[in-house]
């Protein structure tokens, strides 16, 4: 009877807790966060929370996956490599049936069930890497990955055998429950313009480093956005895709990025309202590229390699090169086909420094 009363208490606590909870899942492939949903699945959340508090998931693995589709873990038997043939059979039949989610969407965390047994949920769970419309209405969703879904996707790439079982061990090192922290202020959103002027950006390119300072008195919103994009790694792995000698060198196009943005990075990208100003577009000035719409600038920017008065008042200048003009000149001199460099010119990283 003790376990029944404990479970009942956990269910009531999960439903009545005024503070939202998260599970922090540290794996050998990286860490991701699950927002728990006791309002949708109180019994499952209660059992899951209890198991986490007991360390039941520590040392288990993600034993089954579909590449870019889903990952499955939580089987206590997976702690023991000698029981591989039994993976997927442990830790079940602990939770009574609960309502099935109408939609099973990207990031959904759902309870694993034995086919045909609605009361068979327990320790095991699976995470959808993409929307799974074929599974809508069939499983209880008790959480959602709110951060680190790229880690889950990476786990889904683990090689599997003919039965779909992982051939490499991706381990849950630790799992813990925490209160959901309050939203953090957007990076670089609270500093005054004069404080923003203390930052510099160092562009690590395959032609050498380029250091730029900012003009927050002229284009504060552009400076804030460039800083947060750079800090988040949005510019890492891009290329200088346009070289127009005597005019500009240009980079920052998302299409030139070696790897796709994470969801967290993608959420930072948005159009910028123009901040046209009286800065002249002379050699070394850094300005945002855009399309025909003045408010279409997003990530792409250019460095002037000559005086270009036609750009003045029509493009937002927000910085200037203070070191590394030799690298700018080298990029400008690179062999090209039209304005496209023949060999890739890498923008490896953009590092933010404070003077």
Notes on the structure:
- Strand 11 and strand 12 (248-251) form a beta hairpin.
- The protein has helices at 2-16, 42-53, 149-156, 193-196, 220-231, 263-266, 325-332; strands spanning 21-27, 30-36, 62-66, 70-73, 108-111, 125-128, 141-147, 172-179, 199-205, 208-214, 238-244, 248-251, 285-288, 301-304, 317-323, 336-337, 340-341, 346-354.
- By secondary structure, the chain is an alpha+beta fold.
- The strands form 3 sheets. The protein has an 8-stranded antiparallel β-sheet with strand order 3-4-6-5-7-2-1-8, with helices on one face. It has an 8-stranded antiparallel β-barrel with strand order 9-10-15-13-14-12-11-18.
- It is elongated and about 75 Å long.
Topology:
Blueprint: H1 2-16, E1 21-27, E2 30-36, H2 42-53, E3 62-66, E4 70-73, E5 108-111, E6 125-128, E7 141-147, H3 149-156, E8 172-179, H4 193-196, E9 199-205, E10 208-214, H5 220-231, E11 238-244, E12 248-251, H6 263-266, E13 285-288, E14 301-304, E15 317-323, H7 325-332, E16 336-337, E17 340-341, E18 346-354
Helix pairs in contact: 1-2
CATH architectural type of the largest domain: Beta Barrel
Helical content stands at 10-25%
- Uncertain runs are 1-6
Q: Which of globular, elongated, flat, extended, rod-shaped describes the shape?
A: elongated
Q: How many alpha or pi helices? A: 7
Q: Widest sheet: strand order?
A: 3-4-6-5-7-2-1-8
Beta fraction of the residues? 25-35%
The CATH top-level class label of the largest domain: Mainly Beta
- Helices and strands: which structural class? alpha+beta
Write the CATH fold name of the largest domain.
Cyclophilin
**Biggest sheet details:** 8 strands, antiparallel
